[in-house]
Structure formats: structure tokens, C-alpha cells
């Protein structure tokens, strides 16, 4: 039995807290079953964004004729691109591992952690199989994995999740994607740009259902021009082959119309669709790794979706056990996990407890077009019957947007005192443009004045944000709203 002051399960953002523990002079154990650095580095944002940037470059080249520039692409070294990205990621993970191995205060355990009692875990699988670790304080930061929905016949065919898709060394001829969220959106853009035909099957009425409805609808419309998109369809069954019973390495998905409403479910008697491709990507969200950890041996509670339940300080129901990152299910985003790690380190080793502040937590989707957002969505304001005003401004109506032949919009939601409630963007560089709004909401007065009063460089792209904030706000259904006064 190894005894340590601090144990962290998972080596993503949990490592930030482990390092804080080491700085306090504590002995630290880290249990990790895969390469170090967690989902983001190894099979998430880093490899996907490195790959997507290559797609953006190729897309720029292919659109050059719109600007009077004739180009031909001689060759695309697809396998080399993928290999180089995965080597870079592997080197980063290895350097984290070397750093931990060289440290006297960290002890790294290879394998999965299973709780034996409140503060003891057993390591299973991996090189340290059978090791037991007891700790004064435990941090559960074991993340999530791709969800595999209960589609009939799925287990009998070969399919990809995001993890395998990021390692494919040849683009599929025809990629069928089940799911309509950001993974589907990003990987559709990537593989399509490098020559795959892409078909997307998603249950929701729009792709990117987590985005503001108007932005999601605009995005879905653009994607429907690029790909075959079946939104409002649920994948019901999967069979090997082209449907004729021959197994030719192809896979066929049968999907049925699906309705979102008070009681979501398949549409009675709706016309099904069949889609055949040579690769199937399942991008149907993520599930927490809590089911691998034997949490029943502890007082740690989980919510109905399986995420670890915590209070506003990120303490679990078991004293001495904390949790952060994807496994707590707040925002499944690396910058959220890093933000939580700073809070947890402060709460464990600092003076007094501070709740985690999730206000102005932005997100971005690195598809083409990009999508980004922060704050409240319009449909949430409508549901809550809140008074608000809204304005949108189009990229094309700015000098720079026009120069870029950009399509897209910035949508701003404010309260009646000018407080910023939310901002939602679809179009080039959305992930960059959202930042000044985050800073205004988090570090400024949080009102339209923060953006209005700042001088924006003319004619740079941020003008589309400044103009969206500079007037033209309307109150939807003002008649419906005035009786609240």
C-alpha cells in the first residue's frame, strides 16, 4: 500500500491541481490509464484543431478563384499530415510523462483507478495492476469517453468514434456521421475538404443544438449546401454491406424521422431513409467515466446522467474527495476544466472557499463556418419569459467581411438596462471575435458600453461585433412583454 497526501485520477486538467499540491510540499500520486494529458491533448481539441487548420488552408486555396486567383492543387499528403499531428501530440504527452517521472514528489501509476473504500484506490490493468494507493485528499478528474448509442446492429459492424477518426490515414470515400454536435460538424468539414463525401444523420431539428437557435439554423443551412444532411432523423439500425446482404466493407444506416417536442420520439409512420458509406463515425456525445471507478465504495454521488455531483466549490458528497473537468459535466470544454482546476487548487490550498464562477463561459466550434457563443441563448430567455432586446449584424455589411466574401452574423442579446446577456456568432473567426465580448462580460461593466465605447480598428473584422452592439436593438413581441412593467 502506497500512502500519499494527494491523489489525482486522470492526467488532464487534474495535473494542474497535482502541481499545486507539490508546491505545497505534498506527496502526490497520479493514476492514468492512457497517454498523459487527457482527452484534450491526445484525442480531442489539440489533434482535431491541428488537423482542421490544414483543412482551412486547403479550403482557402480552393476558394482562391473567387478572388481572381487561379490555383491547382498538385498533391495532398494526407497520411503525412495525420502522422505528423499524431507524432506531435505523442511527443507532448511523452514530455508530460518525463516531467512527472523526473519529479521526486509525483508518483505516476499506469492503469485504471477503482475505489476500494473512501480514500483508497486499486489500480487495474496497465503496468501498475494491483497497486493500492491511500490518500488524504482525492481529486476525481477522470473525464469522459465517446458515447455509443444503443443502435440496433452497431456492435456487429466496424465503426469509428472521434478517437479513431483523428488517426485515419486515408480519407473515406463516403463518411456517414451519426450525431449532429460539434464533433460531427468539425469532422465533416475536415473529411469533406480532403475529398470524402459526407452524410450527417442527426436527431435534432438543427446541427449544433447547443448553440443559439438562429445561429444553429444558419449553420445547418450552410451545411446542407455542402453535405447530405438528414436532421430530424434517428439512426435506428446499422448493417454491414450495401444493404443487399453482401459484406463489401461498407456499412448501411437506416434512420427514421424523429420529433423533438414535449414528448420526443420517432414519428409514427414516418418515411425512413437509408444511407450507405465505407466508414461510419459515431459522434453522439460523451459519457462520464464514473462507471469504471466503483464509486459505490465511497460516499461520492452521481447525477442521473452519471456525472459526479459536486457543490459550488467542487467538493463531492464524500469529505476529502473533490472532482473537476468533464466528469462533473458542467461544460465539457478544456478551458472550463482549466478554470475549475484553478478554483479547486485555491479551495484546497488557499485561504477559504470560493465558488466556481461559470459566468461568461464561451464555446467555439472550429468548423467551416466557425460558430462561437457566450452567455444566454434567445430561446432560454423566451422560455424564462424574460424581457430582452436583440440585434444582429451581418459580416457582409462590413468592409472587411465584404473583402473576405464572408457570410455570417453576430447576434447580441441584452437586458433593458444594456447589460449583455449573450452573444452568438456564425462566420469566419467566430472563435476569435467572441473574445472581446467575454472580456466585457467578465472583466468590464458587462454592458454594451464596454464594446460601444472602445475604438475598433477600421476596417478590421471586429467591426462586425462593434456594429452588432451599436444600436438597432429591437424587443421581440414588445406587446407581449410590456405587461411585466
Structure description:
With 485 residues, this protein is of the alpha/beta class. Helix content is 30%, strand content 24%. It has 15 helices and 22 strands. The strands form 5 sheets. Strands 1, 2, 3, 4, 5, 6 and 17 form a 7-stranded mixed beta sheet that branches. It has a 5-stranded antiparallel beta sheet with strand order 18-19-22-21-20, with helices on both faces. Helix 1 runs parallel beside helix 8 (334-349), helix 3 (45-62) runs antiparallel to helix 4 (78-102) and helix 3 (45-62) crosses helix 6. The longest helix has 25 residues, at 78-102.
N- to C-terminal separation?
66 Å
Rg to the nearest angstrom? 24 Å
Fraction of residues in H or I helices: 25-40%
Are there runs of 5+ residues with pLDDT below 50, and where?
Answer: 479-485
Largest sheet: 7 strands, mixed
Strand content: 15-25%
Silhouette? globular
Structure summary, number of beta strands: 22
Number of helices: 15
Mean pLDDT: 95
* Structural class assignment: alpha/beta
Oligomer type: single chain
Give a brief outline of the structure.
By secondary structure, this protein is an alpha/beta fold. It has 15 helices and 22 strands.
Strand-helix topology:
Elements: E1 2-9, H1 14-23, E2 28-32, H2 38-43, H3 45-62, H4 78-102, E3 106-110, E4 112-117, E5 120-124, E6 132-140, E7 144-146, H5 162-165, E8 174-178, H6 182-193, E9 197-202, H7 213-226, E10 228-231, E11 233-240, E12 251-259, E13 265-266, E14 273-277, E15 279-282, E16 286-288, E17 321-323, H8 334-349, E18 363-365, E19 371-375, H9 378-383, E20 389-394, H10 399-403, E21 409-414, E22 420-426, H11 430-433, H12 435-443, H13 448-452, H14 463-468, H15 478-482
Parallel strand pairs: 1-2, 1-6, 2-3, 6-17, 8-9, 8-15, 9-10
Antiparallel strand pairs: 4-5, 5-6, 7-16, 11-12, 12-13, 12-14, 18-19, 19-22, 20-21, 21-22
Helix pairs in contact: 1-8, 3-4, 3-6
